[in-house]
Amino acid sequence: MGATEPQWVLMATGRSPTNIAVIKYWGKRDEALILPVNDSISVTLDPDHLSATTTVAASPAFPSDRMWLNGKEISLSGGRFQSCLREIRKRARDVDNEKKGIKIKKEDWEKLHVHIASYNNFPTAAGLASSAAGLACLVFTLGKLMNVNEDYGELSSIARYGVWKCMPQYIWWICEMVYGKNDDGSDSMAVQLVNESHWDDLVIIIAVVSSKQKETSSTGGMRDTVETSPLLQYRA
Ligand code: ADP
After folding, report:
1. Atom 18 (ligand 1) nearest CA
2. Considering the entire predicted model, what is its pTM?
3. What pLDDT does residue 166 have?
4. Which of 76, 87, 88, 118 has its CA 20 to 30 A from that of 205?
């Protein structure tokens, strides 16, 4: 190989279902850390119908982190993506892929760039929690690539830097996203309440009446509520 660095690409793919809140959180107590004013309880939906599928790749040939969503390149400069990338890189471990002859040291992950491609099999940004499925899937798949400990509670607490209500696992089914008491959000994570066989006969029907992007983002709507509604404290 001489003086040039060997060129390889290491990839991982994951899929995360979306989830619909039966008790929804509304309003953040910390915008930067994405900490809500109340818990939420959500039901995981069937990933064959509503899920995000994400492939992540790392290579010394990539000069920067890049991401494509539904085939279109999107910016990774937003705080939520940067926080997730930073937190997952912090937890990366050595990778020794004998089959491909790739060895990556824990500290190499800080300078290795990633390319991310994600597809949602349902309308994006239309109120069906694509952000929850997408961010959960992103963190879960990056964790797989970087050999991060598969502790779903911890992964959910990283994904929480992207969006609240993330359950980076396939079959969590009914989960509580615990709002936590610590100011740094370290005790805010997803907890499974019951598994997928608990209510075998439950059917959720989602009728998409419009797949247009919503006019007010949840983030904006919540910010307005926190700033202007005297009633929010009672709801929480
Ligand atoms: P939704 O109700 O679908 O969650 P939001 O407006 O709250 O709508 O979130 C949409 C945003 O979530 C997108 O603009 C994008 O930043 C992010 N997002 C959606 N899908 C994915 C995905 N598969 N992977 C990563 N991020 C995603």
Report:
1. 131
2. 0.83
3. 55
4. 118
